[in-house]
Amino acid sequence: MNLRLNSEFGTLKAVLMHRPGKEIDRLTPYNKELLLFEDVPYLEAMQKEHDVFTNLIKETTGATVYRLNELLIQTLTDRDILEKLMFQALQLNNLTHYKDQILDRLSTAECAIALTAGIKVHELKRKIPNLSTNELMDYAFIIPPSPNLYFQRDPMAITPGGIIFSSMKMEGRQREANILKAIFENHPDFKSQVNQLFPLNGQSTPPNIEGGDIIILSKKAVAIGNSERTDAKAIYQVAKALLAEGTVERVYEVHLPERRNYMHLDTVFTILDENLVLTYPDALNSVLQTSLYTLKEIQEDKVHIKRQVLQESLLTVLEREIPHLEILHTADGNPDYSMREQWFDGANVFAIGPRRVISYNRNKHTNNALRNMGVEVLEIPSSELSRGLGGPRCMTMPISRSKI
Ligand SMILES: NC(=O)NCCC[C@H](N)C(=O)O
């Protein structure tokens, strides 16, 4: 039961990442919105940017960087898991009748690519020439691609009390959560260490929650964004599981306006040290409704929790939980730049240690402000990575950090 994290900024020891691959080349001007992209990236340049990010993490922290593709291939050697993931992937377009042929003719590595990058009719016909696909056009997807897979933050979350597997709101992303769940439940490096808090046992259609909405405020408090992607019911269930587990004592529900640039709580703020928060100035004013969940009692194995509607701003919540709080605004609050830089995830830096962050190079006003506060800022190139509208925190799933 060791997969737990008690801060957002303890020195990084292990992290999971996904190098963008063929799934990015599936984006076109016509499907990009459906697949939640702002533009059509140039894959080779994107991979180079991602490699800079990965190498910087390794060089500066010595942390283990797990690669999603490798973990997936290792997990898929179990035929039952492969069958289940393939069935779920084909279910989206009601094409599960292709499952057995695909499994017979594609290698495990090819199945891993099909599960992440998707597979088109003409590609499958190359492997299975006698495939009967009368009803489908050659360039249609039998399995749709998952171009958001490089945002490893969202399909799950590791909290002080255990793991939350996301139930992702957007149909295009739910398969990412299925993949992560299969890996963490079955891979020998992780399976004995998982204390699953969510989904609840036997829940077949859990309410929606995504990892980017979950932020560890302190050892005892977690904030969850009630957002475009995460709903109140999921927050209630996660709060109950976290409070029953006992490590966390307070769970805050933070209502975010439904706007593209507020899509997850971590697009609005990140925590860089025990008393330092980076945020978008507008967020402190527009996030006004918050609620607090605490444990009431546990009686005969029944957990009762209490919800208080606080009507407090995000700032008040942060001040309550983080003593001697210092707040830094994107672009230092300069209205000429803060909106621009927040759009490209200026507030979404990745802390690799206390006051040590990785940030997009394009957010230069924010990076300068961070340096002026004594934060070490390591910059990564960002022309292509930023087109998916997520930043360095979004691209990482920390697995182990030094305890605070
Ligand atoms: N935590 C995050 O904010 N992740 C960024 C996700 C971006 C992705 N294109 C999405 O819309 O889901």
UniProtKB/TrEMBL annotation:
UniProtKB keywords: Hydrolase
Catalytic site: 394
UniProt-listed Enzyme Commission number(s): 3.5.3.6
A GO term for molecular function: arginine deiminase activity
Family: Belongs to the arginine deiminase family.
Name used for this protein in its record: arginine deiminase
Enzymatic reactions: L-arginine + H2O = L-citrulline + NH4(+)
Highest taxon of the lineage: Bacteria
EC class name: hydrolase
